[in-house]
Amino acid sequence: MKLVNIHIQKLLLLFLLIGVHTAQAQVWTLQQCIDTAQVHNKNLQMSRNNVAIGEQREKEAKANLIPKVTANTDYKYFTNLPYQLMPLSTFNPTAPEGQFKEAQFGVPHNINANLQLSMPLYSPQVYGAIQTTKIASELTDLQYQKTEEQIYFEISNLYYNGQILHHQLTFIDSNLINAELLLKNMQLLNEQLLAKGTDVSKVKLQVSQLTTQKENISSKYEQVLNALKFAMGISIEQNLQIEANIQYQNTNEYTPSSTLDIRIIKTQNRLLSSELNTLNKSRYLPSLNLIGMYGTTGFGYNGQPTSFLDFYPIGFAGIQISYPLFNGTVTQRKINQKRIEFQNNELQFSLLTEQNNMQVENAKLQRKIAQQTAETTTKQIQLAETIYEQTVLQQKQGTANLTDVLLADNALREAQQTYLFAVIDYLKADLELKKLTGNISKKN
User: Fold this and answer.
1) What is the pTM of this model?
2) What is the pLDDT of residues 127-148, one digit of tens each?
3) 181 Cβ neighbours under 8 A, 6+ residues apart
């Protein structure tokens, strides 16, 4: 029993040291990690920028309804004045019909300056673009939420892996204490010629293997923490400590709701419908625009006998109607493409719905099995610890050999590993179930 008491004392000391180390570092909960990523994760920042771009595109489409005013000016110097054919009768009334005489008109210097106004009164393309960009903005917002969901999923997985590795280190430290105590006992027995040198070597090998395993797990734990920091968007040098306690005992029932993938497909369906409707309208409906222009035209001459530069006003206002008669079937080809895309979208929606239902059932089964396995292996660990302690006492009393002790130790480690695998399977299945039921970003 002395060995058992020493074992308990060292375990208490181990957990006390872990607690002191934890107290020195900031302990981050899973929700704190996710909240930090909301602010610092660069993928989320880019997604927020994409949402802002979508909003600006929607405003750009609406801006096409605002009148457009353009200022134009030009200067032309004619080295050769343009010719025009005039009926010869203009110069000679007696000249026969059908005969013409070329004549140059105008002056070398021409200046034009004007303001042009254009305002759409009705345009199927403009109103269709407004509706389309509005739906596209909604789609961008859903894609931002999808990025949020992916970040939540990634950080949760890293956090759970870190917790599992932390518990694995705790188990290894406990096993190392047992192995070191066993080594001291075997060395003492060997000095008393009650144990073989090979027995001491076997225990030394076990201690060495556990030490190497601890170093590997410690390295993996640091790698997971670094990956978690990167996903959160914080500096790798920042001190980070995660919660050691794993919450998995209670089975949460999630209320099914529409997942982001399905909502994105539905929004894409609306977007395709809007684009198809716009193409159909632009094919059959005219565009009506208010147009106007006001300016001045200048004519100049710098020759003999008199040089001059005179300006004359010009202005008009009117309505312009445009109706597409034939554009080489370009619009029809675009309509055919959109119809095929629309069919694919509906097939994708049906496929995703069926796939989601199947994955929900599989996740529920996996979570249930993992929870049962974790509960069972918890009892197995307690039993394996008891068997190991009893076997060590029996070996000390001479009623059990070293092989029995090593077998009991292996049984304990297998139970520990099975427990950890069951816990991580449960956590991943629960996380997947939250995602498939549309509850991953909700606090439970």
Assistant:
1) 0.79
2) 999 999 999 999 999 999 999 9
3) 3, 6, 7, 392
